Structure formats: C-alpha cells, structure tokens
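ingest -> validate -> predict -> emit
validate: passed (alphabet ok, no gaps, 235 aa)
predict: started
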Amino acid sequence: MPALLAALAMASACLGAGPEETAAAYGERLAASPRLSSAASNEVACTTCHAVSSDDPRILPGYSLVGAAKRPSFWGGYEPELLGAVDACLLFFMKSQPLDPDDPAARALYEYLLLLGGDVEQEALPLTIQTTVKRAPPPGDPLRGAEVHRLGCESCHGAAGTGAGRIMIDAPILPDQSVDEALELFPDDLPATVFTEKVRHGQFFSVGGTMPLFSAETLSDEDLGALLSFYGLQP
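emit:
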C-alpha cells in the first residue's frame, strides 16, 4: 500500500492543507476542487462525476467514490490500479497531467477515500459500453426525461433551453445547441441518434470533446429515451 499512497498525489500547490486540518478533511477538499487539476482552465472536480454519499440522487457518469479505495479494479476491469483510474480522469476530463508520485497530498486523499468506504474489500463494478450506436432508444415519458435532465445533465449543461447554471461555457445548451451541431456535422443522421452516440460514447470512439460517457449501468435506455422525449427528439 505505501506505493499506492505515494502515487495518489492529486493536488496542485495552491490547494495546500490548513495548519489544523485533518488528513481526511484535506482529502475531501481535494476531491471537491477543480484545482486538483494542474490546468487553470479546468472547471470540474471529482465530485462533478462521482457521488461521495449513498444518498446522492444525481445520475452521474462515474461510480460512487464510496468504497473505491478497496475495489480490485476500475473502468470495467480494464484498469487494475486506483492510480491508473485517477490518472484517466485527470487526463481525459480534467485537462491535467498524470499524478506526481511525490506529492504530499497523497495520504490526505487516500485517507478520505478510506473514510468513505472503510476497510471492507469491495467487488469490481461492471462497465457496459455500447460501442456501436445505430439508433436512439424508444421514446419515453417526457416528465421522467425532465427529471433525468435535472439529475444527470443540468450540473454541467445548465437548465434546459437556457443553460442557466451551467458550470462551463463549452457545455452546449440542451437541446438546441446540440441539435444545431448534429444537423451541421451529421446531416444524414437523425439528431436523436447523434445525441445518443454522444451520451453513450462521451469523448471516446472519435466523438471528441471532454464529456464522459454514460454506460448502461449509469443511464438506462429507458431513461435516455425519456430524456430524448423531453427534448422533443424522436428516433
């Protein structure tokens, strides 16, 4: 475990621990701060995509951090080390560099993760990715779709139709800006299909951007269909 503790260095120098702050409290601040990233332009934190309590109602692309320190693998088994999983988030979503193994914040963050999940060994969690998107899911209940937007999209993209409250200017206002981009870039495909691919693939599979993907475990086809209906997009 010492090597892992040393490797979990995640904070920039501007987010140092307070003189009377516990290690776990310092680690909690690190997980909740965009300044965990070395990129000044980064606007997201670990807690943007990951819950840190069992009663968090949000629909998030990442699994809860509760118990994460004791999971045997990450990213559906593709990443065997916690360090690698953290580096992936920093590199792909937080515009940062890999972690510095000598950063003294490592113990604080690890202490916080242990506090979230205790010492109980956890099971690996699945990650089912729809590698090919040929069509959007069937339409659903638009009232449920409004709730899905509020719980799963609003924190980054802001309120539907206006973008009010979005955390980053690059996040398109839903659904109008995404529909306009879909019609411009993929005129031969239905906007609902393009939107589905963006949700299911995030920035991967040559889609681009910085958005994380929503796997089948984090967002069901039923909820995605409801979201599309709320946006007025038909398959």
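Residues 142-157 form the longest helix (16 residues).
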